[in-house]
Known about the structure:
globular
Amino acid sequence: xxxxxxxxxxxxxxxxxxxxxxxxxxxxxxxxxxxxxxxVYYGARCLIQHGDPYNVNEWLREYRADGGQxxxxxxxxxxxxxxxxxxxxxxxxxxxxxxxAMLAWGPAHIIWxxxxxxxxxxxxxxxxxxxxxxxxxxxxxxxxxxxxxxxLIFSSGRSAVxxxxxxxxxxxxxxxxRFVPAGILCMAVSLxxxxxxxxxxxxxxxxxxxxxxxxxxxxxLFTVILSIPAVLWVSQVSPHWIEEWHSNLxxxxxxxxxxxxxxxxxxMSKPDKIxxxxxxxxxxRDEPSFYNPTSYLIGGALLLLGAFxxxxxxxxxxxxxxxxxxxxxxxxxxIYHRQYDAKMLLLTVPACAMLWSEGGFIGRxxxxxxxxxxxxxxxxxLEILTNIYNNLHLNxxxxxxxxxxxxxxxxAPVILLMLGTFYLWVYxxxxxxxxxxxxxxxx
Length: 443
């Protein structure tokens, strides 16, 4: 073990610690501190008290009963009144959060912060440990870039990051064939919290066949087992929760709302932006009937190409990491994803290290794309770009203004498309049916 490998865990902890302390500092000065965790925490408390967490008035009653106040910031106040960040969570998330909801806010949110930090460190360590066998310096640099750009995750308490970390851990368990039962549980919990983050990774293991399909089906069974009591609990308290949930989702995606990818969205001036392809396409034609199908077509076509190739030829264990790198980037493009979902790029580090260790222009391109992808989806760079854009006062109606708006305010979807397409090209180029000895052996 060389010096880089010995010092790796130390630097991972340091970078995560900087983000954690920075996030705590932002919490103390922000009216929207821990907004995401407040949503699920008070939603679960509301449910425990036999209230309907999908009804804004009942959620607010529980929130105010615990001393909560609406923020004076009009955009944040709008969020609470419209119940957008509160009631788009699935019943399974409320069930999983309910043990913390039985505690007072103080200890509950501190435990949650440690869970976030622990999940990030575990996922980062596993990716570094694997990638470090090929390129310890490159992998440590990329993972430290991810960890040092997690301030908004800690300041808002994003539950999606727990799902992403569990998905990364599960992928490591499955492909390394270690701690498989723990991997099955991790993937199941990830799916019930944020299925749009972990769903395509799970589907990849289904397509691989053999023992990996078996793991995926076992995961599906555990997912159903976790979901049934949650749905029954919520349905008993709130018989019309599905209609209310759909209504809240519709309110979120309405023109000008927090889930609107268009240029009139509240997200335009926020560093914690939506990063799907709709945000770029809508700048040129702000019509959902145009930018939604276009995004589905571009992102979906690339994902289907990789899925067809996997079904037909399978892949080796090494190439499976390259496929996961492509999925991690491309899965965020067709449907709603926010900037914190890009922590899924941890899955790209092993593939980058493998290609770097082989030398040549492909390895250099992999590192360049990976670094750009992590930087342009990171908290600090996006905050800097947002401030630059706001100070320039650009007119985004002209073609020149739209291009600059994409570069300064919407760089994430562009680099994710480039990163995902690159890894998909490498995957299609390298995968051979005869070399798929790992995935084709039924166990």
